[in-house]
Amino acid sequence: MEERYKVITSLSNTVIKETLKIKKRLYKRSKTLLIEGPHLIESAIFSPFAQIRRIFLVETFMATVKFKKLLPFLSDIEKILVTSDVLYTLADTESPQGIVAVVNYDSKKLEELEVNSDFLVVLCDGIQDPGNLGTIIRASAAYDAKAVVVLPNTCDPFNPKTLRSTAGGIFQIPIVFADYEQILSFLHTYHIPLFVATVGAEKLIFEIDFTHSLAVAFGNEVRGVNRILQRASLDAFKIPISERIESLNVAMAASICLYEIYRQRYANKT
Questions:
Q1: pLDDT of 160-214, one tens digit each?
Q2: For residue 75, which phi and psi values (nearest 5 degrees)?
Q3: Do residues 34 and 100 lie in contact, with contact meaning Cβ atoms separated by under 8 Å?
Q4: Alpha-carbon gap, residue 163 to 169, rounded angstroms
Q5: What DSSP element (H or E) covers 53?
Q6: Which of 75, 102, 152, 221, CA to CA, is 20 to 30 A from 162?
Q7: Looking at the DSSP assignment, which residues form a beta bridge with residue 176?
Q8: Cα radius of gyration (the chain)
Q9: 3-state secondary structure (DSSP) of residue 36
């Protein structure tokens, strides 16, 4: 028997109004977020940290191969058919892909993280650009970090632009919110050394041994890593670059650093 979907055609509908509040992130650091597009939704389906609550889609998307691929995994999820105008209002992009989902995200606490001999946690300290934060989360997931810690004055990791920049990576790695006292106490308790990436460091990244458990901090696009973290760090390092270029974007620098950590650990296992 073919499933019948609820239909909503009006922006004044209560469900749509509540969903727009989620889109506007009126409840900062809320565990409920809005995602769009089949790729992000597929990532959420298979995530240990996310649960899809509701799907909005337009009729034209129902006929696509992408929807038919997702459908077997959406059997117990409420699906609402909406008009193009309603979907366009719910979506954040200029050219919506035909499907939007409301997702509950289970952000973790520091004490819930499992610390082992190759533990790696990434600290995002005051990063303001959503694209930068999203790329760092994506790289952290790609290079086997165990968590990303969002420190004070960092932008919202659940901002729509941040979510898109993670390319689904946010659903593959725990996101933890903490202040400086909490993260430093956690690192001290588990004897995890902290390293900071900064252009003013004397040591090059290749001179640091990353084969043990550690935390690495990446700072604000202008001011860099907070002095609180710099004073608490075991060491600082920089990435050597050509004199023709003044500096690297923080997301690019973080990706290079996380790759080097991964490379050292992988080489150590072979």
A1: 899 999 999 999 999 999 999 999 999 999 999 999 998 888 899 999 999 999 9
A2: -60, -35
A3: yes
A4: 8
A5: strand 50-57
A6: 75
A7: 108, 149
A8: 21
A9: strand
Helix locations, the chain, DSSP H: 14-23, 38-45, 59-62, 65-70, 84-90, 130-142, 160-166, 180-189, 227-232, 250-269
Tell me the one-letter amino acid at 218.
F
Give tens-digit pLDDT for 214-225.
999 999 988 889
CA gap 171, 39 in Å, rounded: 11
- Is the overall model pTM greater than 0.85, yes or no? yes
Query: Which domains, ranges and CATH numbers included, belong to the chain?
Result: 6-105 (3.30.1330.30), 110-269 (3.40.1280.10)
Query: What pLDDT shows up at residue 200?
Result: 83
Q: Dig out the tokens for 130 from the structure.
A: 């959503």
Tokens of 196: 């900071």
Distance of CA 176 to the CA centre of its chain: 10
Amino acid 131: pLDDT: 95
pLDDT tens by residue, 141-150: 999 999 999 9
Residue 72: φ, ψ to 5°: -60, -20
Q: Residue 80's CB: how many other CB atoms inside 10 A?
A: 19
With a CB cutoff of 8 Å and minimum separation 6, the contacts of 230 are 196, 198, 236
